[in-house]
Amino acid sequence: MRGVTKLLFKAFKNRFDMSDEDAKKLARIISNIFRNADEVDDASIDKYVRSLLYDLQNERLVKVRREEIKKKNRLFRKYYWYLNMEVIKREANKRVDDDPGRIYRMLAKRVWLSRGSRFNS
C-alpha cells in the first residue's frame, strides 16, 4: 500500500472500527478517486462518489474548496474536494484500545462492592 492509502486505511479502521478488508477497500477507492492529485473536481465525479465524500466530510476526513469564476459577465462556482490530511494523520496514529474490558479493571473495588449490595437485597 502506498503512503496516503496506508494512512487512509488506518484512519478508516480507527474512526469507523472497520474490518481490515473493508478499510483497505475504502482506502483504495478514495485513493483511486484522487489519483495522487491534491484535489478532485466535483464536476468530474458521479453522485455515488459524491455521496461517499459527503459522508467523509461529515467526519472531517475530506473538505471542499469553492472557486468562483467570471466568464462573459456570469459567475460560475466550481467545487474541489481534498483530503484533510491533518485529521487523517491524527486518526491514523490514534491509539486504539484493544481491550474493551480494561475500563472495568480501572474502577475501584469499592464501586463494585457498593453496586453489588444494592442488587443483592
Characterization of the model:
With 121 residues, this protein is α+β, with helices and mostly antiparallel strands. It has one domain. 55% of the residues lie in helices and 19% in strands. The chain has 6 helices and 3 strands; from the N terminus they run ααβαββααα. Strands 1-3-2 form a 3-stranded antiparallel sheet. Strand 2 and strand 3 form a beta hairpin. Helix 1 crosses helix 2 and helix 1 crosses helix 4. The longest helix has 15 residues. The radius of gyration is 22 Å and the shape is elongated.
Beta-strand percentage range = 15-25%
Gyration radius, rounded: 22 Å
SS-derived structural category: alpha+beta
> What is the H/E order?
HHEHEEHHH
How many domains make up the 3D coordinates? 1
* Uncertain parts: none
Shape: elongated
Distance between the termini: 58 Å
Number of strands: 3
Count of DSSP helices? 6
Helix amount:
40-55%
Order of strands across the widest beta sheet?
A: 1-3-2
Largest sheet: 3 strands, antiparallel
Q: Average pLDDT, to the nearest integer? A: 87
